[in-house]
Design a protein that fits this description.
It is a single chain. With 349 residues, the chain is mainly beta. Helices cover 11% and strands 44% of the residues. Strands 1, 2, 3, 4, 5, 6, 11, 14, 17, 18 and 25 form an 11-stranded antiparallel sheet that branches. Strands 7-8-9-10-19-16-15-12-13 form a 9-stranded antiparallel sheet. Strands 20-21-24 form a 3-stranded parallel sheet. Helix 2 runs parallel beside helix 3. It is globular, with a radius of gyration of 20 Å. The protein starts with 6 loop residues before the first strand and ends in a 6-residue tail after the last strand. About 1% of the residues have low confidence.
């Protein structure tokens, strides 16, 4: 299988780069300025950066409004750990899925997810902890040390540009240590000369902790926004207003039926949503209280609806409202039509 030396995908206002090896698994840029660095996982005292590359391939959608990248790396130590990632890029938003497994009958008993670095020197850091209130603090020193899951972290720069990382929609997976007796997690957000670091130690166990033999999956979203921080939400020809958790199948069906039946060229969703919901039936766990978000679901349908609208010569936008999402970078980008993407060959860059 062909392994790309690097994948570079450019939108009109940002660029995603995915790397086969090295310290970073991916990076996000505004122009020539790096805004986000996505590092690599560590598990069983081994660092993915020391692993072997097995896959890095790319795919651009026919309408050029979205692009996907698949990567796979193996840590050839211990029981051999395998890290698969799927990246989805559209509208200056990136969704990526980690699938992490221990081969040869092993278990994952200690896990750092990718360290997130917001590059440069921002003015302030904003974050929302699970079960806590939204906080905005100066970007100085140690911002936060906690065993609770940060659901969302955002940084704002002096020129008005911003970046945001969202732990979702699967809050229950990112917070999986809480469901294991004797396990815990630690998150640290701190500022140094490189930028704002978020160290995500999502699974810590002791000798007597019993952990299932199973793979681990995590989904996340991140986005960058060049200055000024403002969404451009238009009142388009075909509008639908919905309320509730967008992860609910009924809301999905209502939205998709609207898009299919609408004769308007431009489409717009006004969603009065729930940032965190516990109705397990929304994620195929009926009768259970399972914490989950909805921004990933909105993003997936943003890609789908943008493709439908593009065939009609129009575009799609979404305005997502929730108290926790005021000034959200991801939501600001959802409120703008998806731009055309292109791959940049390494020799052309």
């Amino acid at each position: 299988m062909k392994i790309e030396p690097v994948v570079k995908i450019a939108s009109p206002s940002s660029r995603l780069e995915v790397y086969p090896d090295g310290l970073e698994s991916a990076a996000c840029f505004c122009g020539d300025r790096q805004i986000l660095s996505i590092r690599r996982i560590k598990t069983g005292n081994f660092d993915e950066a020391s692993g072997l590359v097995e896959k890095l391939r790319r795919h651009l959608a026919n309408d050029s409004l979205s692009a996907e990248v698949d990567s796979e790396n193996v840590i050839p130590f211990g029981c051999e750990y395998r890290v698969r990632r799927h990246w989805n890029f559209a509208g200056d938003i990136v969704e990526f899925t980690d699938d992490i497994s221990a081969d040869n009958g092993g278990r994952i008993t200690d896990l750092f997810l990718e360290e997130i670095v917001f590059c440069g020197q921002p003015d302030k850091v904003e974050y929302l902890l699970d079960g806590g209130e939204f906080r905005s603090v100066p970007a100085v020193g140690t911002v936060c040390e906690t065993g609770k899951l940060p659901l969302l972290v955002r940084v704002i720069y002096a020129d008005g540009s911003a970046a945001e990382f969202y732990s979702g929609d699967d809050f229950f997976r990112h917070n999986g240590a809480a469901a294991i007796a004797g396990a815990s997690a630690e998150h640290r957000i701190y500022v140094d000369g490189e930028g704002v670091h978020w160290v995500r130690h999502v699974l810590i166990t002791g000798e007597d902790t019993v952990v299932e033999k199973r793979p681990w999956r995590f989904k996340s979203l991140f986005a960058v926004l060049p200055p000024p921080v403002a969404g451009n939400c238009g009142e388009n020809g075909g509008n639908i207003a919905l309320a509730g958790c967008f992860a609910a199948p009924a809301l999905h069906r209502e939205f998709r039926n609207f898009v299919r039946k609408s004769t308007a060229k431009d489409l717009h969703l006004q969603l009065d949503g729930k940032f965190c919901c516990t109705d397990g039936s929304h994620i195929s766990r009926p009768g259970r209280a399972v914490a989950h978000g909805m921004l990933g679901e909105v993003f997936d349908d943003y890609i789908w609806a943008s493709g439908i609208a593009a065939k009609r010569g129009g575009s799609f936008t979404a305005q997502v409202s929730a108290p926790e999402l005021v000034n959200s970078v991801i939501c600001a980008n959802l409120a703008r039509p998806a731009g055309i993407l292109e791959f940049i060959e390494p020799e052309e860059f």
